[in-house]
Amino acid sequence: MAKLELRNLSRRFTTTLAVDDVSLEVGDGELVCLLGPSGSGKSTVLRMIGGFETPTSGSVLIDGQDVTGVPPEKRPTGMVFQSHALWTHMSVFGNIAFGLRLRRLPRAEIENKVEAALELVGLKGFGKRGTNQLSGGQQQRVALARSLVLEPKILLLDEPFASLDQHLRERLREEVRDIQQRVGITTLFVTHGQDEALALADRIVVMRDGRMEQVDRPEIVYREPRTPFVAGFIGQMNLVEGQVSGGRLVAAGMSVPVPLADGPATLAVRPEFLALSPTTTADAPKVHRVIDYGTHLMVDIELGDGTRLKAQTLPQAGWKAGMKVEIKPMDFGVYRDGRAVHRSSTAANSRAEAANA
User: Fold this and answer.
1) Edge-to-edge strand list for the sheet holding 154-158
2) Cα 276 to Cα 278: distance, rounded to the nearest angstrom
3) Domain count for the chain
4) Which letter, b or e, does each residue of 65-100 get, where b requires 16 or more Cβ atoms within 10 Å of its Cβ?
5) What is the CATH number of the domain that holds 169?
6) Do residues 117 and 63 share a domain?
7) Would you say the pTM of this structure is higher than 0.85?
8) Helix/strand/coil (H, E, C) string of 146-202?
9) Could you list the residue range(s) of the whole structural domain that residue 294 is in?
């Protein structure tokens, strides 16, 4: 369909630098998620691509053509907003057909395109209904159909499921991914939900304070986060300050070998890689709370200094509050000066096995 390129894109609002020198290439048919907390600049990036915000500096290129100064209605982009932005005085058919009518297409062609778009999003036969007769999920499908019917080169989705309940969000994101792959349209999806990004994206762009912290495939962002921010934002992560001495990092009572010079460092361990075993040692960490999720237990561990760690275990493990435990990281990362400096050999071996599978 199309390739998108952002070159040194920045946007300043008075004294606030909302987007700071973002450069990104999105391949033909790729789905890229812009992920980050509120205020990270992800929606501003999307709005600049769609032409709804003007960059302070930098440029937006689609298929090599600079569209930075092109108004939204003349760009080959389609945008779906969180609020649906449907016209309540029009039927579902009227909402989807609106852009086609502005293009003065023949009536028969408009009808064919609208019906095809409705069928694509699973709303065949809904054309005569009013938008107020639809559920939130159906309204979002109409908004998606309204964008797709114009056959844009780039589809832009700005947190389209944020107002929906969890079950509906999960169902719709699967449907949107299926539609995106079926149509083959280049797509940017803005979200602050890590689950959505991991489930949808070919690549994830993690943003913070207007800048890109990491751009990688979902599995790489999860398993090899480059910064403590990414490590803590994607999934759950135990981040513990420690000290390297004599080739070992000691943190929260754990000691692991690291090929690093002496000095402070941060140990990062996912809950699923923090192994627990019972102990009778008096000053050992203790279980503070256990949450049973059915498929697994999340064990909240309290250390002597008040530090809390989380470990994920099998539901039959039988951990209870007050039990003494010995903790051992089975897979871990190490950060120093805000950057990843070491991954455990277990992680390296896992990557090698995956590559050779």
Assistant:
1) 77-80, 154-158, 186-191, 31-35, 203-208, 211-216
2) 7
3) 2
4) eebbeeeeeebbbbbbbbebebeeeebbbbbbbbbb
5) 3.40.50.300
6) yes
7) yes
8) HHHCCCCCEEEEECCCCCCCHHHHHHHHHHHHHHHHHHCCEEEEEECCHHHHHHHCC
9) 236-356
Residues 19 and 52 in one domain: yes
- Both tokens of residue 11? 């946007």
CA 320/CA 292 separation, integer angstroms: 11
Asked if residues 1 and 170 have their Cβ atoms less than 8 Å apart, the reply is no
Query: Are residue 68 and residue 210 in the same domain, yes or no?
Result: yes
Query: Own/partner pairs for 219-224, CB < 8 Å, 24+ apart?
Result: 222/198, 223/347, 223/350, 223/351, 224/333, 224/340, 224/343, 224/347
Please give the Cα distance from 206 to 313 (Å, whole number): 28
- Tens of pLDDT, residues 264-285: 999 999 999 999 999 988 889 9
Amino acid at the residue 84? H
d(CA 117, CA 128): 14
Q: Is the pLDDT of residue 82 over 80?
A: no
DSSP 8-state class, residue 96: H
Spatial CB neighbours of 176, under 8 Å, sequence gap ≥ 6: 144, 157, 160, 200
